Amino acid sequence: MVPIPEEGDFVEEHAWAWTEVIRRKKTSSTTPIHPATDSGKVTLQLSEDDVLPEINYWSSSLYGYIMGTNPPWNVVSGYLKRIWKNYDVDKISFIRNGIFIVRFKTVEKMKEVVKPGHFMFDNKPVIINEWSPEVDLVKNNVQTVPIWLKLSGLDLKFWGVACLKRISALIREFFRYDEATIHKTFLGYARMLVDVQVNESFPDSIQFKDEKSKTRDIKVEYNWVAVKCTQCNGIGHSKDQR
Fold first, then answer.
1. What is the pLDDT of residues 170-188, one digit of tens each?
2. CATH number at residue 90
3. Which run of H or E residues covers position 168?
4. Are 103 and 196 in contact (CB under 8 A)?
5. Side-chain-facing half-sphere of 12: CA atoms under 13 Å
6. Burial letters for 141-179: b for 16+ Cβ neighbours within 10 Å, e otherwise?
7. CA 82/CA 104 separation, integer angstroms
8. For residues 74 and 80, what is the distance between their CA atoms, to the nearest angstrom?
9. Which are the contacts of 190, defined by CB distance < 8 A and separation ≥ 6?
10. Which of 23, 29, 168, 196 has the smallest count of CB within 10 Å of its CB?
11. By mean pLDDT, which of 46-50, 166-170, 235-239 is the weakest?
């Protein structure tokens, strides 16, 4: 039976352990690293072998953030685990300023998540991208974002798939409808997800001519509008919200 050490014995054993580490370092045959000097400044050139293990480790990862908000990390983690519970998530880590990185067990599972690429948190777009060693983990490289919008005042004859797609194209690229619009269970407005340019204006109405050349004016509402900061050019906040 191994005796339980007293407090003094633990400190002595701990001190011996560090002494052994130092001794082994002194007697190690590992070739020391001597950084080069350039104009008096110390420089160090890393090799591919130095970084390859981490590149391989994160190769099945995506990174992203929630545009327009920065919830607590545990809320974001719980949300990501829930929406990707069937995609073999291995690790969720947080980097800075609301940016997260998610590692999957396989590259294939990661690509399955990235392919559709349209996720929303509290009606705000979740921006995700496939990670690569050259990627710059910042928020300001977004050009387009998915946004849910509502088209109010549509006559019943305009609720067909072909009509709605053509009408929504007046704003931006169409992605999908919500369930109530697809099944026509609520006809107060048509709700759809579209891809919009963050630097473009968001019209509050659109016009088109119907089959009899009558001009129709349709009201447009957005669940969320991309705000651009005039100070840092970032997306999702104004100058006063920084």
1. 887 777 888 999 889 999 9
2. 3.30.70.330
3. helix 161-168
4. no
5. 5
6. ebebbbbbbbbeebeeebeeeebbeebbeebbebbebee
7. 14
8. 10
9. 150, 151, 154, 159, 164, 177, 181
10. 29
11. 235-239
- Tokens (6 digits) for 33: 């690293």
The alpha-helical segments, DSSP class H, found in 42-147 are: 48-57, 73-83, 107-114
- Residues 154, 115: one domain? no
* Secondary structure (3-state) at 105: coil
DSSP state of 235: B
The answer to whether residue 85 sits within a structural domain is: yes
Is this structure's pTM higher than 0.85?
no
Q: How far apart are CA 144 and CA 2, in angstroms?
A: 64
Tokens 């891809």 appear where? 195
Q: What is the pLDDT of residues 54-69, one digit of tens each?
A: 999 999 999 999 988 8
